[in-house]
Amino acid sequence: VAHRLGIVPPRRAAIAAEIEVPLVSDSASPATFHIEYGVIRNGYAWAFPKRDHLNVGAGFFGTSQEARGPQTRELILSAISAFTAALDLGVEASGCRTHFHPVPIWERAGPRHHPSKRVLLAGDAACLVNPLSGDGILNAIRSGALAALCIAEGEPGTYSRRLHQEIGRDLDAAARIARIFYAFPDVCFKMGIARPTATRTAARLLTGELRYTEIVRRVIGRLLPAVKRLAMPGGQ
Q: What is the C-alpha separation between 118 and 156, in angstroms, rounded?
């Protein structure tokens, strides 16, 4: 939609794949959302519960050249297979139909509405996927609601600015954390994910109860000293 209208929002290259796994085992509860960082370099894997199956997939954040390469596709497929096996789902990932798709990761602020003010981009069309978590549902809902509000108020021309103020700034904060997180996953796991409060914090971020702008300074302030120690000769 964006390209057809001549609107090209800044975006990062990313690719993801997913399969649908029937629930034939009680080992993975359909009420549990699984997410794994580390099963794939510079990416993540997930198992998202639905009514009678799990949506299992993996995503890779990288350069455009890496995302298009066949090695990246194999890396993603291997990650899905490993994750499916670890969850003991009772099926082989290779026997499930795989869907590949690009992931429109947020890069920076830019035009998200047509100069005519007759079209406002929301969700994936506006490249609002979180550069840290890979989540796009929350911001798709937020941007759709904001677009409707701008139209209802008779101010569609304010949409791009308001989108950045209400959503983009939060994604900018997430991107700052992501640059450290994916460069030093081991340190970030020990200093962040392994903390007792990490799961609760992640849930609040995914539901919008907590904003990245509220935690970015605290998180980076905790991670940077550990990263610097690791970078020093003999550092651990």
A: 8
Q: What are the tens digits of pLDDT across the range 111-155?
A: 999 999 999 999 999 999 999 988 899 999 999 999 999 999 999
65 falls in which pLDDT band (50, 70, 90)? low
**CA dist., res. 58 & res. 44, Å (int):** 6
The helix (H) or strand (E) run that includes residue 211 is none
> What is the average pLDDT value for the chain, to the nearest integer?
87
Max distance between CA atoms of the chain, in angstroms, equals: 61
Residue 122 in 3-state DSSP? coil
Please answer whether residues 212 and 170 qualify as being in contact, where contact means their C-beta atoms are separated by less than 8 angstroms: yes
Find all residues with CB under 8 Å of 83, minimum gap 6, and list them: 34, 36, 39, 45, 47, 56, 58
User: How would you list the strands of the sheet with 99-102, edge to edge?
Assistant: 34-36, 43-49, 53-61, 14-22, 99-102
Single-letter amino acid code for the residue at 49: P
> How far is 221 from 218, CA to CA, in rounded Å?
5
* Rounded distance between C-alpha atoms, residue 202 and residue 197, angstroms: 9
- Amino acid letter at 109? A
DSSP letter, residue 189: I
The pLDDT value recorded for residue 33 is 81
Q: Report the candidate in 201, 222, 197 with the shortest Cα–Cα distance to residue 211.
A: 201
How many percent of the chain have pLDDT more than 90? Answer: 43
Q: Judge contact between 214 and 187, C-beta under 8 A.
A: no
Supply the pTM of this predicted model.
0.85
Q: How far is CA 127 from the centre of its chain?
A: 11
